[in-house]
Amino acid sequence: MTKIRVSNPRLKGRDVLQKKFVVVDLETTGLSPKNSAIIEIGAIKFEAGAADYAAMEALIDPEVDIPGIITGINGISNEMLEGCGVIEEELPRFIEFFENLPLAMFNAPFDMGFLRHNALKIGAVIDNPVIDVLPLSRKAFPALPNHKLTTLKAHFGIRVDQSHRALVDCQTTLHVYERCIKKLFGG
Fold this sequence. Notes:
It is built from seven helices and five strands, in the order βββαααβαβααα. The protein has a five-stranded mixed β-sheet, with helices on both faces. It has helices at residues 68-74, 78-81, 87-98, 108-121, 133-140, 149-156, 166-185; strands at 20-28, 38-47, 54-59, 103-105, 130-132. The chain is globular. Helix 5 (133-140) crosses helix 7 (166-185) and helix 6 packs across helix 7 (166-185). By secondary structure, the chain is α/β, with parallel strands linked by helices.
């Protein structure tokens, strides 16, 4: 498959039908890329027809204390991050893993804001095409009471161990993407 570059990296319509892409999810210390830090990155490289997918994940030392409310959501504690690499060490490995492939995310503006902000810290630019699975789910399943990833997981009976951890949420996002594509495009 040819590597894709677009000036407006938001893929819509049938363009979301990709044979190869990378599902990405982040856990962070808060909501603002300028005032918060990435504490976990997960990524799964999807390729249509493949039996197994390459994956990577990393816990990241934010060099600040994690707020208790965040630990309560994702279970990541300050102690878990002791001795982990910092974002400037870990992000280049993920950028290499992403290649120029489209990035699929659930609520992409949030994760892309953090990725782009942190990429600038290391002199990199992430301008891969983006597939946002959240609006796909809204279009495919408008009758659901909400479109939180945990709600979609329950609706589809997706069996993953937990939520609010990066690699597990990547798995859930991939399942939701596949269900949306099947519903919207008969794929």
